[in-house]
Fold these 2 entries.
Entry 1:
Amino acid sequence: MSYVEIRELTKKFDTTTVFENINLDVDEGKICVLVGPSGCGKTTLLRAVAGLTHPDSGVIRLDQRDVTKVEAKNRGVGMVFQHYALFPNMTVEQNLAFGLEQKKLPRPEIRKKVDGVIELMGLGPRAKARPAALSGGQKQRVALARALVLEPKLLLLDEPLSALDAQIRKRLRDELKRLQHDVGFTAIFVTHDQEEALMLGDQVAIMQAGRFVQIGAPAEIYNRPANLAVANFVGDFNIFDPATVERLFGVAAQTSSWAVRPEAIDISPADRKASANGGAVETEVTVMAVQILGAMVRHYTRAQDVMIKVDLLNKPDQRLFQIGEKARISIARNAIAEMNE
Amino acid sequence: MHERSARDWIWVGLLGCLQLLPIFAIFLNSVAVDWAGTILPDGYTLAHVQNILKDPRFLQSIQNSLIVGFGSLLVTPFIVVPAILVAHCYFPTLDKYLAALVILPYAVPGIVLALGLLRIYSGNYGIVLNGSPWILIFGYMPLAAPLYYVPIKNNLRALRVTELFEAGRLLGASDALILWRVVLPCVRQGLIIGLVMNFTLAISDFVYANLLVGGHFPTLQIFMGVLNGGSGRKLSVLITTYFVVIFVATAIVVWVTSRRSEA
């Protein structure tokens, strides 16, 4: 039995169905990332788990207890909001102590727990500051600390990093992963950023139009998207429909499309045989553009009228192809994900 | 932050002088022996101040004004402020009607409002307040509503109230506690402005005081009205006293509300 169980959950606003009969399981000590485009229902689902929105039907179980109709404050759930929701009139310490005071804990115990979480989150120098004096990253750390100090059964994070700039976002992502390793909390994390989802999640649930289209480990989601919609959402797959597959690679009798990651494609000069192993498919391309993406170099190539993205690792000795240069690409069979609409 | 130059200070100083000059001139007039045709008075005396202080009507009017002023502060904010907060937090769609409602008393001519208040509080609806300070205290309530509404709404707009409530609920707090410990302190500035303006309205009003209670309960403004046309010196003493009362009351309000928010 899973630690968090969502069964046949349905939520409608007037005539609009946000999600219908959805199911999700999250194991204890794991982070489940709900990822999907805006308006797909992920935040509403998170709010339903928090008790801030009431589902029309279905069951939410937390640690084997049915909490579907339990008040938010009695669920043992902590939540981190996108815009922090820190109390502006209170200092960092007072924000952290607020929830513990509601539990009527003795003062010395509150002090001890607050000091502990301040140390854990590295907030010591800012303990007496009010939220207005904090940076975005610091505010989000306080919001996380405020949820964690109550030792919730389940931590819910609603796009907590989306209001931050890229650098801080990356650092906080690493911190969150470290914290999860150290503290071992169970969390449901909502994001629309696929990179964030793959990096943070032990389990990634892709949501589209109010339903889960794929739930799995990050590697599985990344390498084996369940359908074209997932492939398009999760990343930069090259999608080849059956007709294109036949035209470019000479592989006939296909009924499903191919999805191939740009980094899974080998590229070599046209006059040299591609370094593909047996069973690989090949075609000739022309390099149309080259872009440095940091660790990768992306080549936009064209085979007949089809654009194909090819990524190479940006090593110092990497040979970069020139615009207009003829080349040959090769795709290993095990790099091809076959899928239907 | 922009560094202040000498020119900035000169502008601020000039503005301050412009605002303080009339008050200072009234004060000088209240202690002048004679003041005509010269920039400064010919001499100074406290005789007018002593005369006024000996006048039992003056002390009575000061006392009455303070009763109405502080009475209004003890009643109005406890009814108006919760209404503003509840409308903003729980009935945002109805809030626009409240916005229109609070300015309505200023759209109605004073005499109409006064007659309406007299009618309501003369026993027609089971409430008899005519002739007592209560009719002023309750009568000023609709007039004071926008004085709270505008500054408090400005503070509320800067807050994500729904998220604060949700965060508070998840931390185990009741809505009433979140209102008391989070929302109210966050609108403290607006509340202080409302309280000061409410007090100033109650203590400086002549029209409604004259129409609603008149000689039954003479306030400072009514006493000023009585002296009007008489000695200009005495009137200056009254006006100076009025400014001192406003200043002291404002200081008390700011001090009390600041202490409350720090607690």
Entry 2:
Amino acid sequence: MTATTTPSYPTMPQVQRSGSVAAFRALLLRDVTVLRKNLAEFIPRTLLQPLLLVFVFTYVLPKIQLAPGGEAGAETFSTLLIAGVVGTAILFQGIQSVALPLVQEFGFTREIEDRVLAPLRVELVAVEKIVSGALQCLLSAALVFPIAAVVPVTPVHLRVDWPVLITLALLACVASASLGLFFGTVFEPRTVPMLFGVIVVPITFLGCVYYSWKSLAVIPWLQVVVLANPLVYICEGFRAALTPAEHMPLWVIYPVLVGFTGVFASLGIRSFKRRVIA
Amino acid sequence: MSEAPGTRHTVRPVEDVIHTEHLTKVYPGGVRAVDALSLTVHRGEIFGLLGPNGAGKTTTAGMLTNRVEPTSGRAFVGGVDVWANPARAKQLIGVVPQTNTLDRALTVWENLYFHGRFFGMSNRVSRLEADRLLEQFHLTERAKAPVLALSGGMAQRLMVARAVMHRPSILFLDEPTAGLDPQSRLALWDILGELHTDGQTILLTTHYMEEADQLCDRLAVIDEGRVLALDKPAHLKASLGADTVVTINADGDLAALRDLLVDRIDGSTYGEVADEEIQLWVKGSNGVLPAVVNVADAAGCTVHDLKLHEPTLETVFLKLTGKELRE
């Protein structure tokens, strides 16, 4: 078979043949470098939205006595909200750090064409996007958590379940980055405003960020509809991992999140390949 | 053309850096961009794919560089089947695409450094190589600049530097001078000449016949996805059997005049009407101009302008396709 014959002309000694692994690592290194260079943008972009959310809902509203559930509810609410804030930060980051750059690179810059020439399978270039996106999601969760824990005027009750926190945070980050990969390959520069207006906004408002899934029992149809929203499982999962608040059972959260990740990752990788190989 | 159809080699001799067997691409919708293309590029040569826009040059280059999946046929680079073993094949390929694909999030130096890392160089080697290439391509002063700050010519040089950094067996350039100013074009030709001297095998696609003539050791003239002729530029021009081309700008029935000229002018081998002008190919140019005027007069045509020049690849293309090569 021709594919396996070794070319016998000389190649430069410094070019190792470790191939795909080295290329994958180098792509990650490139993304980390770009992130480091852009920290001054990354930090405010990541922090401002959750900061305002927490500030208004758990500081301003209780102060002006408009807190959901009244004075007594404020404490429950800030505890409920911390999971929502961390979950939203992760999902946003997945879209911002994977989808938006991809839309650009596929669109007018065509930079992606060069990345695709790196000596590894095209599918692995897409997988690298997920891995690097997931790392950025983790970083934003870590940045946002202290805000949600400290800013509220009423104490936030934390009860950290470490094994759940670690596994769920990783899963949520990979799920969000996969979602970002998928969106990044199906949206074009022209349609990006749609991504926010029609997809991200409903996902956040109907993502059990500001309320628990169980509390939706009073609006049964909504309780069913939101089950299609991956953010619901992320927020409910963080509720389980961080707080004593009521949450969806973990045996539902884990498999569904794994399922979402699998579906969006494979759709995203397939669509990525279709975009770069004619 | 190149290989006899039907031969199916299991091991390609290494002297053939590129080898394709009946490479075909039919795009969705049925457009047959490349049709059973078989060609071989030898080590150390500059090989040109010459043809008008839409001839299938870029698609061919794409199929050889893992960007356009062939509908049928096979493509080998350095003996590696490009589509059976893409990761391995890409290690052997350097590409300078038509558009600027530099990494805008990185500086000039970083573009090279990370390219080296993608291709398996260690941190130290990649740093040294990036420095060396910036020097070689006269970009050292711009090392820390963002790539968006580069002029078109500089960006092009950086893309060439990046493409050769991992010492590819073959360097692909897709319409490398399209959109460059004349000075940058000459500078790029110099660079390619130097790389060629160092033994770099190069495949370039172009629709500039001057570029193809100047740079290429061998050329495939392509139109509508097929190779119409493949030879050294000088041989292609010699294949016309003429050493002079007379361009005649005249009034009257040009097709009839052409037939008359081919018939009556000594040594004329072929005539063609294109762009409201007649091109007459002649072997031996002595006395040809008065003869042309006499024939035209006799036929009742007024000659406005006459030009003599050596055959160019443009002429070759015109003879092969009946079309002009220009955009």
